[in-house]
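tool_log.txt
---
The assistant was asked to compare two proteins side by side. It first ran the structure predictor on the initial sequence, then on the second. Raw inputs and outputs are pasted verbatim so the downstream comparison step can read them without reformatting.
(1)
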Amino acid sequence: MAVILFDDNTYQQLLPLTFTRPLANLRVGILTIAEKWVKHLSQDFSYHTRNYLQGKFPIHITADNLFINGAVCPDDSLLDDISKLPLGHALRYQGQLVAVRLGEADAKSFDHAAAYTATEVSRLPVIIRYPEYIFRFNDIELRKDFNLLTKGRESAQISSTNTIIGTDFFAEEGAIADCSNFNTTRGPIYLAANSEVWEGVSIRGAFALCEHSSVKMGAKIYGATTIGPYSRVGGEINNSVVWGYSNKGHDGYLGNAVLGEWCNMGADSNNSNLKNNYGEVKLWDYTNKHLRKTGLQFCGLIMADHSKCGINTMFNTGTVVGVGCNVFGGGFPPNFVPDFSWGGAEGLEEYRLDKMLETTARVFERRDGRDFDENEQGILQAVYELTR
């Protein structure tokens, strides 16, 4: 049976993060949503997504296909319901398609809005509907992923120079840590293979450091925080999710935030996560083109893929930065920095696509010569055209 993670209209509510990826490629907890399903189902997977993403995220259809909503995170109850799903039948939650099992012919004409014969899911699954849901649900998903990845296994040994408080600590082979403090009494701590925690770091769980990532000396990190693969962080971080190939390598505060892939925060950059009047935070909504109430008192920065900020940048509470931006200068930039913008508080102009692509190619080259291929370039070209 082929597992196919599909996009429905939820992706529009998760812009700008989903301009450059399918829903199931969102990382929340330790794993992406797609990786969670793979671990549970022990099946290969592919994506049913927008046309301009399909080259990088291809679809594979067979005689028996299980389509799963890419915004839905697995749990035991949902997995049980899906295991009983007969061919031609679906699961819905409050009208939203969660999963459907289809033969080859029907799979080729799959439409998430079609009226499939469906059973209603009674128990609320974790569904990532808005950008802030990523850090809101990171604690729940990190704990679930920790149990999934470590069940029946023993942690590798790390240096005795570290202090570990509590028992929910797990290091994969190749993880390195020296002279640091790990407190697991508030949540588990997971160090992936070939990750490194430098000297003098203090980490309070829940926390995950993914493969080939590092935490620099003296950093202070509070849960629930995830640092994705091939990233480097330092300074003070609280309840944030940093995706792969991104850097926040210096002092400065990042809290209640999401950083996409290939992002860079300059030294001493900070985000506010609490308004001075302690009021509800609003975020820019791409679907309605105005600010949306989040229901949250704490909400910091949402930065999409390939965006960067210069040293000492100050982001106000509830700032959204689109794809491919370069933010710099004194003062607070606007609470919404549109995709492919260049500038800051004194004004924004368009970041020319050719110049942005030149920079991106250099960034890729620094990562062990990773190829900035036609699929990657095509996605950015498509997003640029969509946002003009």
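(2)
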Amino acid sequence: MTLTAPFAQLPVTRGQRVLLPLPEAYSADPEAFGRRPVGNGPFRAEADHVPGQGITLRRYDDYAGPRPAAVEAIEYRVYLDEDTAYTELLSGDLDVLPGASPDVVARAERDVAGRVVDTPTAGLTYLALPLYDARWADPRVRRGLSMAIDRAAITETVLAGTRRPADSLIAPGLLGHRDGACGYCVLDVDRANALLDRAGFDRSRPVELWFNAGSGNEAWVEAVRNQLRANLGVDYVLHGALAPAEYLGLIAEQGMTGPFRHGWAPDTPSPRSALEPLFSTLALPPAGANASSYSDPAFDALLARADAAPTEEEALAAYAMAEDVVLADMPVIPLFVDVTQTIHSADVEDVVVEAFGGVDAAALREAG
């Protein structure tokens, strides 16, 4: 692979699924490869995959990588409903139930206490501010809104632990995450009101708060609305009737009139995946996902410096400075990071869930 310019994040970028290596067998017979795929990891398929019936992987003893499999085989099963899978876990017929729903997790915390693994993943939910609207041009207004939101209360009650409060633009599990990077993500009602006062924000005019329909957002958006109303004395009008396609179209057309729900899930563990697509000038609509239409030459320069850094340490330091530029301006209000909840039996240990929600099969071990 030959690059046209230095790029420090190439090693992690090559971990994208679209860049995973394919053997010659794929080109020779794609259908056969689909039935019995060949990868480059510590397991191999024991038999052809039958759609709807799962697949069994067996440890590949000739694997030359740094992390060989700790168990002899793993059977991946397909269940038509989660209740059946949970019943089998309780009976000892299933060892790991990934991505469990809140209802099943609540039962598991009673039935198998201590065997629920909560893992923050890469997904971030935030409110974007339409910087093309003069009402949101002052960063003090954006900071004040952020500091009037009690993220912990919403994640604990409305979201039942399925999210965690965001304190950074770079989610836990990604390279470069820093706990508490977002100082304006801390609840401080007095400071929030002082910021709005200094900015001369018109509190008599209702704020329009936007979210897309059909994605389970209404309850937490209403909670945010109620907190902002109580803490800042500003009335809010909710707009939640647009279908996803219409909603995204309105964002692309710069038609938002107030804070609007948005989310992002990086495709690599690099901090660049959390920053560049959302905040760089090159990512402004309609070309990219910079929904707030944010642009800052200092951020762009730091991003370029990080990309070309000769070492990972220097790259991460530059990405951190780039994140700090955005967090000072607050073009978006980070709210929650996604959490995946995995239940396991007493027969296994070292249940490790990666930043993108998958169970690390190589780390899994038999208990005892």
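---
observation on (2): The chain has a mean pLDDT of 94. The CA atoms of residues 74 and 306 lie 40 Å apart.
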